Structure prediction request, 524 residues.
Amino acid sequence: MNKNHLLYSVLSGILLGFSWPTYGFTLLIFISFVPLRFLENLIRKKNLIKIFLFSYLSFFIWNSIATWWLVYSTFFGMSFAVIVNSLLMAIVFTSYSFVAKKVTTKLSVIYWVCVWIVFEKFHLNWEFSWPWLNLGNVFSEKILWIQWYEFTGSFGGSLWVLIVNYLFFLVYKNSIEIKKFDVIRFSFSILSIAIPIIISMYIYKNQDQDVDYIKASILQPNIDPYEEKYGKTNISIINDFKDLVNSTNYSSDIIIAPETYFSESPGYPIDSFEESAFLITLKSYLNKKNKSDLLSGIQFYQLYYGKDEKTESSNLVRDSIWIDIFNSSFFLTNNQKPKVYHKSKLVVGVENMPYKNILEPLLGNTLLDLGGTVSTRGTQGNREVFKMNNGTKVAPIICYESVYGEYVTEYVRNGAQFLAIITNDGWWSDSQGYKQHLSYAKIRSIETRRSIARSANTGSSAIINKKGEIVDQLEYNTKGIINGKINLSNELTFYVKYGDLIYRFSLFFFLIIMLFSFTKKKKY
Prediction:
């Protein structure tokens, strides 16, 4: 094995990994693909297997550095995510090399950009979805650089990274092959970084502050999800809830509590929730306290008595009894029936068995035990928006859903004036996991120009304004409450209106170039 080839492969993986938020040096992302691209150019004429193996090593290193914290959930879950995601990335990169042998240089560059973006979109939508390392997420800590995400979404960031990497690749390739440093190309590469940042700063400076607001109390109960959370009854949690809310005299319009805050398993039968002693007790307290609305996480279930009644997500209990279990939010406001929304972007292997009709007969209903009930969860088709007592509309985004840009825009198109993210990030301990999850929420605020109220069980709870700035925040692994103003907006950004246009153009050119390559013979 050529040691230089190995060095190029390892270097790309390290650059990708150490560019990643929240600890990374973001500028590294603009040269991170250069070593791997140069290596591919060197060995393209030999065989695709070497390209696949070297690229797999690069992506394995990247995935390991950026998502090692998954080990706090399970070692198997971390290993599966790293191994499979690296494999998919290597296949995509190898497909570029295959096409590049058959088409012109210009077409191969277009294909390189488009196939990666198509892959990222695919990774947002298939049942093994894991978009954590989509390239546009790398700028989540650099909000001053990406204010134009309100037009492009995070795919604008992916496009930026891929184009700049190609420009620096040309600079490096030229310096190695003809032993001359190309000052003009290098300057152009630097400008390709600087110009989008300058545009972003201009947009940032001209963002008006929203006038309307509501007052919110955001809870961070800090209940250990492994040792404590799922052993408590909901009635005992109400008592904890009262103590936390009573610790402040703040008169809020809405109280926001985290994902599965009321966590007693298997939850409440959804059809009779309104008559439950739990709900009656909770409403009585809220009416006496300050008549605040409440948005909180909870578990529900629905029983079916026969195969004809069950849904695709139903789990067999015994004989002909089936159950749907929901990771849900519920919303209480004065003199109205409680409203419910079911989480619909589920964590693979924990809340959802991918391709259940195929895999369940082979594996059984085997999911990773992270506390609570380990069964496939039910979902819903529409993005529900809750209307508060004062008329304000709030989006009840649950945990993993906040990673999906175009998905979140559906709430805004349905009228949401601010975003509430409720989550439980305690599975990942005090690691980059919860920090990255919080950081990615900044991207959603810029894309939609909506303020965010984020309630996280163990942290970090926060208020984020529409520029992606954290206005207030609680530290991880602390119990507390944030009282603050959440600005409201009715603006619909270009991205909210039109979604992932960059992906749609990429898909078109990807298909055209791929089909064209099949009609061409190899150039060498």
